[in-house]
Design goal:
476 residues, alpha/beta, Elongation Factor Tu (Ef-tu), domain 3, Rossmann fold, 3 domains, 10-stranded mixed sheet, 32% helix
């Protein structure tokens, strides 16, 4: 039975997006309520805190115009849910699952609570299959595996949105199994949202993409629900329809800012840099919804994208994200200034599950060894570049010049690829071509049998002039 509470007699305060209600003894934590205003359309809210005397309601829309004397709150005993169906593919929704594309609402196959839950560790299956993103820096050196959560750490102004759109266009699983993308944009400006929609429509991937858009001028509270709605849709497509789902969440920094705003409105004791102390648990409740379930065909793979404030990788948002997830892909401002796209800095980047998704039968038997050798030579080249800044190019020895040239060529030929995608075979071929600048004896991380099989003749020795020119090639 519904419990109706008149705010005019029971509300103690309205603070930002929160309503504080007295006497709601039958309210339930997480319950969705209806806020009825005189002469206006109903608004919705959610109970986020309960005590013996008070209930705190998080308004899911604007609180502007709410007048306590002419408002009532209806507790209906329902939790936040999302109607889901395979018909969601090719559709665009707002942050709480309402259609934005002008089409009728989805006819649901079922309705699911958006809170979800982490996969039972006993039933969780180890990730083991390769996802090809078409980006050499990821496929070759920081491979994405089905069921993995691999965040992208960006900086303000870096082309993370272009990289996200490129991955949506190019991503595919090998073997022809059913594959789709769930894309959730959190707190982004209209210009960026319009860019994403045009890219999806123009690339022909729209029919296998579900889009959830929470714009910068939408209610802040909606940002807390957007990733949960997206993951609920992904779980339905993966574990009911057996699809392999890639979930892209951008920008998780906006999500954490909304979390902090609500915590401050609730007058909670702040943690590091003002963020709530439970932010680690809250982020984990999202990230841990990725994975594979034993006996089920589908999988959920996550690519969360976040902007590091002041390019600080130790900031609480990237720091906690790195603890929960299985690696990170870091974008470099220095590479972006050189006009290299995508500007992925492979040295601080890492995919902890890479070995589970590569090798013979998945990518190629030489993949791991080749990646190790490229890492080693590029790291040495970067060290030489720093030394060159001190002593000058004339102070370098012949061997050091070879590593310096390799670092330049690696960035210009391997990392730089513009808006086009590369199959994994082409990525590995470029890596072998770059290694021809070194004698066989220098390839200490690759077995001789692999060198004899994959190091082909021709194409030059790679000792040409340093590559320092070239126009930026950013998609969009």
């Amino acid at each position: 039975m519904d419990l109706v509470t008149r705010i005019s007699r029971s509300t103690t305060a309205i603070a930002g997006p929160l309503l504080f209600v007295e006497g709601a003894r039958r309210a339930r934590l997480g319950e969705i309520v209806r806020i009825r205003l005189e002469g206006e359309q109903e608004r919705r809210g959610q109970v986020i805190e309960l005590s013996e005397t008070h209930a705190v309601i998080q308004v899911l829309e604007e609180t502007q115009g709410i007048c306590p004397a002419r408002t009532e709150v209806i507790f209906a005993g329902e939790v936040a849910t999302l109607p889901v169906s395979r018909q969601m593919l090719g559709r665009t929704f707002n942050g709480i699952g309402q259609p934005l594309d002008g089409l009728p609402p989805v006819i649901p196959e079922t309705t699911l609570p958006i809170t979800g839950s982490a996969i039972n560790i006993v039933r969780r299956e180890k990730p083991s299959e390769f996802i090809q993103t078409g980006v050499s820096a990821i496929d070759g050196l920081n491979t994405l595996v089905r069921g993995q959560k691999l965040p992208i750490f960006s900086g303000a102004g870096l082309p993370a949105h272009s990289l996200a759109a490129q991955i949506v266009r190019q991503a595919q699983v090998r073997g022809g199994e059913p594959f789709c993308v769930v894309f959730a944009a959190i707190g982004i400006p209209f210009r960026e949202a319009d860019y994403y929609l045009k890219v999806f429509e123009g690339s022909g991937t729209q029919d296998r993409t579900v889009v959830f858009l929470n714009l910068a001028d939408d209610p802040t509270i909606e940002r807390l629900m957007t990733p949960r709605c997206a993951l609920t849709a992904a779980e339905f497509l993966a574990f009911t329809h057996g699809m392999h789902v890639l979930v892209i969440l951008t920008d998780m920094t906006h999500y954490c800012e909304a979390l902090r705003e609500v915590a401050l409105a609730r007058e909670e004791i702040p943690g590091r840099r003002g963020y709530p102390g439970y932010m680690y648990t809250d982020l984990a409740s999202l990230y841990e919804r990725a994975g594979k379930i034993h006996g089920r065909q589908g999988s959920i793979t996550q690519l969360p994208i976040l902007t590091m404030p002041d390019d600080d990788i130790t900031h609480p948002i990237p720091d906690l994200t790195g603890y929960i997830t299985e690696g990170q892909v870091v974008l470099s401002r220095e590479l972006d200034r050189k006009g290299i796209f995508p500007p992925v800095d492979v040295l601080p980047s890492l995919s902890r599950l890479m070995n589970l998704g590569i090798g013979e039968g998945r990518t190629r038997e030489d993949h791991r060894a080749l990646a190790d050798q490229l890492y080693a030579f590029y790291a040495r080249g970067r060290d030489v570049r720093r030394m060159e800044a001190i002593v000058g190019e004339g102070g370098l020895g012949a061997e050091e010049r070879v590593f310096l040239t390799f670092a330049d060529r690696f960035e210009a030929e391997f990392l730089r690829q513009g808006s086009g995608g590369r199959p994994i075979e082409e990525t590995l071929a470029i890596g072998w071509r770059l290694l021809r600048a070194f004698p066989v004896e220098a390839l200490t991380r690759i077995k001789r049998s692999l060198i004899e099989r994959y190091r082909t003749e021709g194409g030059g020795d790679g000792a040409g002039p340093r590559h320092t020119d070239g126009a930026p090639e950013h998609p969009g």
